[in-house]
Amino acid sequence: MTDRAVLLDVDGTLVNSNDAHARAWTEALAEAGCIVPFDRIREQIGKGGDKLLPEVSAIQPNSDAGKQISKRRSEILRERYLPHIEPFPGVRSLLERMREDGLHLVVTTSAQEEEARQLLRVAGVEDLIERVVSGDDVENSKPDPDIIAVALKQAGIDARDAFMLGDTPYDVAAASKASVACIALRSGGWSKQALHGAVAIFDDVSDLLEHYADSPLDEHNRPTRVGG
Predict the structure, then answer these.
(1) Which pTM value belongs to this model?
(2) Residue ranges making up the domain that contains 66
(3) Tens digits of per-residue pLDDT, 169-179?
(4) Distance CA 158, CA 73 (A)
């Protein structure tokens, strides 16, 4: 059997953290005197700070102000919200099923690595992950395909033998640009219409686990190839 991999997003996919990220950004920006509505930031969650910050403000991520806001956002997330973030039901069972099928599990997230590892511990699945590719490893975050390209290279997996599992339109777009089939979950708060382009859409990890045998993850249901 050809080696296959699943490239896993974390926020909104494995753990219910998208709102927490949006609140942390909202509060960090407000402390810096930049008032941005929660909903405006929430729709950008899934991108890294390099994309989100200039999208919702006039602040560049590499400026002194941008670095301070990003640092403060991380502190707020860790201190105020991390203790209350919970995994979605069925996460460990789904990842164990993937491992039993011989799938390599690689995290591909726009978050910082330490943040991602904290959330993997929250999800109780850190021991099932072979490697973590984060926003720290690339210059451009999702929806650019850089994180996916690095993950495939590190894992030694061809794009045709990989799936992206994510919850945002930015996951779908990044996967498409990298010619990787994306399985999307609605647990991050996006509609089926917003997730257009995914090869399959499920409500959440429990829904995917329940219909695993009929999903693209099953060897017999593999899509041929995704256009770049």
Answers:
(1) 0.93
(2) 18-84
(3) 999 999 999 99
(4) 36
